[in-house]
């Protein structure tokens, strides 16, 4: 039964990633339909991240209080509703609301996956099972994003969004039939916990007074936030600026997500080999900085080199995954949902802040796109500094 629950959670995350990353492929067509500027399309893209970031904190509390079944089915339903509204959008407010609902529903995916692994598998297997889950989800998303890149050539962007919403609706059936708690934890709610908000704020306080949680969450947030900024908006735009056609750029950009999945598994294997989370995180961050800097600063890049660079950027962003494993080493299981939700929230707060920054820098200063995009490796330097300060928790 554990692997069935794992598979459902993985499919949800893959679906969430697909609806999220499709915006990177479709945003040019959407901008053309609504006559949006570069700054406007970036802001609408960041709405997903803001909604996601805020909601994941509440999702963590819901998981700790009500468990997997109710929480995950509710989240999937919201994603379907958001996709349907986004596809039917005929003005900017409805477009923005659809994007917000997609972010709210998508917020249930990643904390839910981490929670499912924590609940259904032993803690010593958490890193490996969680890493494999991200690899499978990322692989599915890579295929899906490539398909979107080819579909947009033949169909309107709204039609593609409707296909995604229909898939989510069909996915509700196995979720309703199969999703459940472990047999020894069938009633996670207890009236002694107080109200939802009381228990949530209590658990958040427990986490936020720990310096190590701040370090781990900021490292995770900066790493994944940088990846999202590149993967959702700026990766394709940088490639087009270097002479690639949009279809090729989209294909290259899609390699980020499968590479992220491979990196999420690989960093756990490296950590086990080195017997150190701290050292593996430092190595991956340094390599990520080098890869992104090369992408931004190179005047010309061949197609093969572009694939290598984007694969490296995704791979070394696997630092985000090991943050969840590190958290299980110092966080009580009873508040693991809140911890996973807060970790995920930090990622999208950073993403929401970083994604529009290059556009703002270009707008305010007239700086070229390449130089404005240096904000991403600079952010990773801060994460590296925090990793150097973090104590070992292996």
Give a short synopsis of this structure:
The protein has 17 helices and no strands. The chain has helices at residues 2-34, 38-66, 68-88, 92-106, 109-120, 126-154, 157-178, 196-208, 211-241, 246-274, 277-297, 303-316, 319-328, 336-354, 357-365, 369-372, 375-389.
Structural account:
By secondary structure, the chain is mostly helical. It has a single domain (2-180, 196-389), classed as Growth Hormone, Chain: A, CATH 1.20.1250. Helices cover 83% and strands 0% of the residues. It has helices at 2-34, 38-66, 68-88, 92-106, 109-120, 126-154, 157-178, 196-208, 211-241, 246-274, 277-297, 303-316, 319-328, 336-354, 357-365, 369-372, 375-389. α1 packs parallel to α6 and α6 (126-154) packs antiparallel against α10. It is globular and about 55 Å long.
Which properties best describe this structure?
394 residues, mainly alpha, Growth Hormone, Chain: A
Number of helices: 17
Proportion in β-strands: under 5%
By CATH, the topology is: Growth Hormone, Chain: A
Estimated helix fraction: over 70%
The CATH homologous superfamily name equals MFS general substrate transporter like domains
Q: What is the second-level CATH architecture? A: Up-down Bundle
Q: Which class in CATH terms?
A: Mainly Alpha
Order of helices and strands: HHHHHHHHHHHHHHHHH
Spatial extent as radius of gyration: 20 Å
Unreliable sequence segments: none
Backbone structural class: mainly alpha
Distance between the termini: 29 Å
The pLDDT mean sits at: 86
Shape: globular
Quantity of strands, as a count: 0
How many domain units?
Answer: 1
Largest sheet: none
